[in-house]
Design goal:
Layout lengths: L3 H6 L20 H10 L2 H6 L1 H14 L4 E3 L6 H6 L3 E4 L3 E4 L6 H5 L4 H5 L3 H13 L5 E7 L1 H10 L7 H9 L1 H25 L3 E6 L7 H22 L5 E5 L3 H5 L9 E3 L6 H8 L4 E3 L10 H15 L4 E2 L12 H15 L2
Parallel strand pairs: 1-4, 4-5, 5-6, 6-7, 7-8, 8-9
Antiparallel strand pairs: 2-3
Function: Catalyzes the decarboxylation of four acetate groups of uroporphyrinogen-III to yield coproporphyrinogen-III.
Protein name: Uroporphyrinogen decarboxylase
Pathway: Porphyrin-containing compound metabolism; protoporphyrin-IX biosynthesis; coproporphyrinogen-III from 5-aminolevulinate: step 4/4
Length: about 350
């Protein structure tokens, strides 16, 4: 049975434009909060294939999206490379041993050895393949090397990125060593997700906008392209989605290139600009401003606006970033049904 989401990624004819939401398995769903409470904490939930499988499927049953995205976290990679990760309530992720020196980097496990430690992720994917409806696709994912490296260097989320950007300008060779080590783990991790059963994979560069345009290719995009090339060499039929957040200036200057299928458009990038610059080369995904979900009227207005630009061609509906925790479930359902309504052929 064909999967509408996979078909759309490959620019095949679909009965309507498929839709899913970043962070669709999460805190806005009471059912998710119940399972998370049972797990004890966020990291326990990531490490428990049965529970991770359950929360991955919830948005399909409750909200009606066309694809499931694996429930996990981008930071399981540095965690399994040997860093000391803790998720602190009300604060977020914290590495107690951020990378400051070559010795700090050298003690971390790299390559396939690190990827092999993420067994709970592959177990979750295998379980999902047994439980997901045949017509629903499963999206695997990873953080981009730059986004992962920022957490590994800063030790936590940051608004200024001053430690990793200080390294970018004062010791770029060392930053490239970190990015290289992370890239090599990610390449194996993506292949193992596909071999476990992921139908599509997405590379999230959440902190792309922290890098000035002239440096973005060198310190992020080229590593993402390398990962996409590695995947496509081994599994050419598997769609690859790139999602660098906050790169309108990079798109505008025609700097996007690479062997991948879908480009995720963030909400700060006009869809018309993305279509003009990239629509002939890549299927576009996005890009409703997530806060529009607080209003059904604002949601409908935006969905109709995106549809009028994309005309149901080479497009996947999504938000321009993740759904927020206090969005009413009814409003998320409204978004999904509106996407399907306006694009029905």
């Amino acid at each position: 049975m064909s999967k509408i989401f996979v078909d759309a990624c490959l620019r095949k004819e679909t009965p309507y434009t498929p839709v899913w939401m970043m962070r669709q398995a999460g805190r806005y769903l009471p059912e998710y909060m119940e399972v998370r409470a049972q797990a004890g904490n966020f990291l326990n939930l990531c490490h428990d294939p049965e529970k991770a499988c359950e929360v991955t499927i919830q948005p399909l049953d409750i909200v009606g999206v066309d694809a499931a995205i694996l429930f996990s976290d981008i930071l399981v990679i540095p965690d399994e490379m040997g860093m000391d990760l803790e998720f602190i309530k009300g604060f977020g992720p914290k590495f107690h041993d951020p990378i400051k020196t070559e010795e700090d980097l050298d003690r971390l496990i790299g390559g396939e050895e690190a990827a092999n430690k993420l067994t709970y992720v592959y177990e979750t994917i295998k379980l999902l393949k047994q439980k997901l409806p045949e017509d629903k696709a499963l999206i695997g994912f990873t953080g981009a090397p730059w986004t992962l490296a920022t957490y590994m260097i800063e030790g936590q989320g940051t608004k200024t990125y001053n430690l990793c950007k200080k390294m970018m300008y004062s010791n770029p060779e060392f930053l490239h060593k970190i990015l290289r080590k992370v890239t090599d783990v990610v390449k194996h991790y993506m292949i193992k997700q596909i071999e476990a059963g992921a139908d599509v994979v997405q590379i999230f560069d959440s902190w792309a906008s922290a890098i000035e345009v002239s440096k973005y290719d060198e310190f992020s995009w080229k590593y993402m392209v390398e990962i996409a090339d590695y995947i496509k060499e081994k599994y050419p039929e598997i769609p690859v989605i790139m999602f660098p957040k906050g790169v309108a200036a990079f798109i505008e200057r025609d700097l996007v290139y690479g062997n991948f299928d879908v480009f995720g458009v963030d909400w700060g990038t006009p869809m018309a600009l993305a279509k003009e610059k990239l629509g002939s080369k890549y299927v576009l995904q996005g890009n409703m401003e997530p806060c529009r979900l607080y209003s059904k009227e604002a949601t409908t207005q935006c969905v109709e606006g995106i549809q009028s630009i994309m005309q149901g061609e080479g497009h996947i509906f999504n938000l321009g970033h993740g759904i927020l925790p206090d969005v009413p479930v009814e409003n998320a359902k409204h978004f999904v049904s509106e996407c399907q309504r306006v694009s029905k052929k």
